[in-house]
Amino acid sequence: VRSGCGQTLYDTPREGLLCNVLGSVLRLHRQTLHQTLPVCRGNSREHFLWEKMASLCRPRRRNSEKRKEKSRDAARVRRSKETEIFYDLAHQLPLAHSKSAQLDKASIMRLAISYLKTRMIFSDTKAEKAEAPVDKQMNDQFLKAMEGFVLSLSDEGDILYLSENVCKYLGLTQLELIGHSVFDFTHPCDHEEIRDVLCTKHGYNRNKACSFFMRMKCTLTSRGRNVNLKSATYKVIHCQGYLKSYNSNHVNSLGCKEPPLLCLVAIGEPIPHPANIEFPLDCKTFLSRHSMDMKFTYIDERITLLLGHDPANLLGKGVYDFCHALDAERLERMHRCLYQKGQVTTGQYRLLAQRSGYAWVETQATIIYNNRTEKPQCIVCVNYVISEVEEKDSVLSSEQATQQKIPKLEKKEEEEDRKPTNSYPSFAQATESVFSKKTPDMEPSFFWDGEQALRDSPEDLTRVAPAAGDVMIPLDFPSPDVLFNSSRLPDSFEK
Questions:
Q1: Alpha-carbon torsion, ordered 366, 367, 371, 375, to 10 deg
Q2: Single pTM value for the model
Q3: Which of 53, 101, 158, 459 is most exposed, with minimal Cβ within 10 Å?
Q4: DSSP secondary-structure letter at 227?
């Protein structure tokens, strides 16, 4: 213990030890020590020490009621001011009054930050003219015809904007998603792919086209019910859009050029499950079922009308045998993505017709799992034919080359069936141009009449018939393969 001038009040070890012991006692018996301490007036130093200790032990004066009241009043005023500020901030958001009135403070801050980021990104765009009533009606129809929702992400993965119809596909409302990170609502295995899309390490194009698949949480069940977010499942979303930069020429207050703000603007289209597709299908659509290596196990009969294939001839054959060679690599990449995501949309590719040519097709593939073993069982594809058969005179695969031989034989048979039976020329008519007619001046021996000769000399008949002991000489004719070997196609062409 030191005095006001900094001098020590005790010099002996006994006084120091006593002070330490009394200090520990004071902490344990603070309320009762004031009554039990004796008064010592012998030594001035000890008296000063005891007075100091007694002052520490005296009960403090507390105006608890007044302080509590002041604290409550201050908190009430602070909360009222804070509520007014958040109320004004909520009404500045571009939301309906019925929606903004139900937001809590955290949601108001989240939506306000997202709205400011959106305004900052689109601040360099030109002011739009006032929309006509017809344009407003068309804007409402765009979302209905799009079969998806509009999605806008920042370069850090924050959701800047979502269209209102996202609730129709995911069960989550627009206000529940805006401002959050997209990584909070997507599958963990897709995070790296999303970062690669938003990343600009390896160079950047101002309008970079992007197309990728991601699995987002969905609270809708197959029966249309809405469940809790903890019980949500994942739905595959096909995102197609552009990664754009904004404010590239903006200069801050220090005169330095700020880096451009990146933003992904895309359309997210959920891939429907085959069990949820409405039947009957369109006349330009056919179903097919495949094994896990994409070999046909079932195919709809409509393919005969669209591409000419016989469904029975396609069973057991792979899809890659009937696709265009330039599209095989992309189909293989989509096949690999199908194993990872469970669903995929191939985009437009060329599917070969039966004999020649091809047609543009787009396929939605889904893996069907076994209910008992929960293992992949098969792949069901919904194929949309979006064009007629093109390049009908071009043979593009060995399958089409083998089908080219069959029509020629069929055409010959059809032509023979169409001809009448009496249209064939007789033997006399066919040889009339080769042999001249018999005239009276010809000698009787000019033409040998076998029937008359046998009547005149029937013994000649015994000379023609073989007698016993005659040697039989076989006539070796070449096989048909040797005769027609030169007219056959080479094996490489058939393959």
A1: -170
A2: 0.64
A3: 459
A4: -
